[in-house]
């Protein structure tokens, strides 16, 4: 099992989670963070750090977010999605997007 970043992160990209990750398993895309399932050690320290509650243990994923498991794995392997280990500012319009749902169509790969 691994941890998974869900659609709640799309267009927000808060990076509080990367500061606490002991194995640097987060990867950064243009408007989303993903967790590399091959690197994640299931420590769960990232879960309470996310201000939009976008991170779940795979076994706790809401039913409407199960598709994000494969998306995290796919994006984590893209060469353009680099490891992120230090907190950065959220996207400029993150506050506007943080409570919206159904954001998969906004994901930039």
Strand content: 5-15%
Question: Helix count, per DSSP?
Answer: 3
SSE string, helix = H, strand = E?
EHEEEHEH
CATH class, named Alpha Beta
Number of domain modules: 1
Q: End-to-end span in angstroms? A: 24 Å
Q: Tell me the total number of β-strands.
A: 5
- Stated plainly, the CATH topology is called Alpha-Beta Plaits
Main sheet overview: 3 strands, antiparallel
| Helix-residue proportion | 10-25%
The rough form would be described as globular
Task: Write a structural description.
By secondary structure, the protein is α+β, with helices and mostly antiparallel strands. The protein has a single domain, classed as Alpha-Beta Plaits (2-Layer Sandwich). It contains three helices and five strands. A three-stranded antiparallel β-sheet has the order 3-2-5, with helices on one face. The chain has a two-stranded antiparallel ribbon with strand order 1-4. A hairpin with a 4-residue loop joins β2 and β3. The longest helix has 10 residues. It is globular and about 30 Å long. The model has no long low-confidence stretch (mean pLDDT 97).
Annotate the secondary structure layout.
Layout (H helix, E strand, L loop, with lengths): L2 E3 L10 H5 L5 E3 L4 E3 L19 E3 L9 H10 L5 E2 L10 H4 L12
Antiparallel strand pairs: 1-4, 2-3, 2-5
